[in-house]
């Protein structure tokens, strides 16, 4: 009987021990959100967080925040905790430049994600480059930012601290032209732009390729981005006999423009770039937007398993705003900075060196990882090596992917 | 006070000093000498309690084991294979001139198709979108390429209508239909400026007056 008692007690203790072990094994997969403490590295963000383009800007901010939290949770860079500081540029170059100066003054900032607008980037690049502070834009597509103003003839990288995960309008414009001319079979285009760096540049690359393919430009016009009344331009489009409109600009103007063109009786599609690829365009353009087209950087989310994980985690994080067109690219931009910081810390015996900014900028050139949007790495100009684009069409009140392409040149 | 750290902190097996009474008799676990315990028959409730304890322990073990089994770390479900367009790369190698020469109206270009990972990918169609040109390839679709392998493809442009040929396209497409165990996809590859240059030059030659004159002669 005594032996039985001992067996019973031993069994009870074993059960208890096993239960404790089970609890312990579950805990092994969890890490503290605060990372391992030690050094705090700030990832700066510059984007339009208020105003017409805030839907895109808030998606950028939240996606960077998710990347920082993920790195902390995984204790990805030992001894380093990442935090974010977000600045609102309101899509204005002057505000962007002030933000750049402010971020440079904060010594804990070792990398910046942003901006959204190419025109804003132009005002920030030199400020960051003088401070050797790396900048990774998830959204800028103007070729000159990485390849110089004379990029069509001679490519020269103006700033070694500037990188981007989005592909350029040197590809996006021709990609759209190929689709519009060859697939959509449109041959007479009316080209409109908003006179800004992004819009005018994209319209130019589209126009060049469209003409090379044999298409005709039956009219051109510029709009004032501060206006919402485009009735005069819409009438010109109607009278031109165009069978398609190409608009270089962003959705706050593109939506009303499409609506007002349709209102003249011209039942022709409006085509734009990644700047109009947002659900807000469809809301602004109204029910007649069906058939309007947009190109955007990257492959459709549904084709990328890595993006599905990002989408799931983004929803789980409970952000109020959508990740929008550049969410995946913003996460990858932030993660590129995290990878560069990791490389610098690992190479310096687990600590940040005194010239961390310069070293992080140098490390960025060789960063390579499998990101949300595919393989993330940069070429000699700081451009993304992953150059995918997709054409989307408005169908049943939503954007639907109709054709994807990969630049392999 | 500092602890020296010398000597066993806890008694090991066989190092217990036996608790003894003054007469040297060992105590049982209840602290009672066997010789002191009056022999008595175990009562039913007492036996019942022991049986219940043993049963409860067995149940606890079973439940614990079942819980551990149910919550054991499991391998996540295998990820689905990648979409074919995400693993295929098509790059331009150069213009091909056969030993016996080629027809100017049927220029040939070599491409390299590779599959980086995942299940094999079958190219079921290869073409290009411009009017006035048809395309054929060697090997002819369908052809299958395994992950990690590279296949050379030679495409031939057949000019059918010079009036519709884009003679100076900046970024011409090569359209393919790809299939693997995950999906079938239409995808465009843009082989870049060198291909664009070679293609434009070849198409200008194919549609030049000289070529037409030569062919008509």
Automatic annotation (TrEMBL), chain A:
Superkingdom is Bacteria
Q: Which SUPFAM superfamilies match?
A: Periplasmic binding protein-like I
PANTHER family for the chain: AMINO ACID BINDING PROTEIN, LEU/ILE/VAL-BINDING ABC TRANSPORTER SUBUNIT
Q: What is the lineage of its organism?
A: Bacteria, Bacillati, Actinomycetota, Actinomycetes, Kitasatosporales
Q: Does the keyword Translocase apply?
A: no
Asked whether the UniProt record includes Aminoacyl-tRNA synthetase among its keywords, one would answer no
Q: Which organism is it from?
A: Streptomyces mangrovisoli
Q: Which Gene3D superfamilies match?
A: 3.40.50.2300
Family per similarity comment: Belongs to the leucine-binding protein family.
Q: Supply the alphabetized keyword list.
A: Signal
Start and end of every Leucine-binding protein domain?
40-397
Tell me which positions the record assigns to the signal sequence: 1-22
Recorded protein name is Branched chain amino acid ABC transporter substrate-binding protein
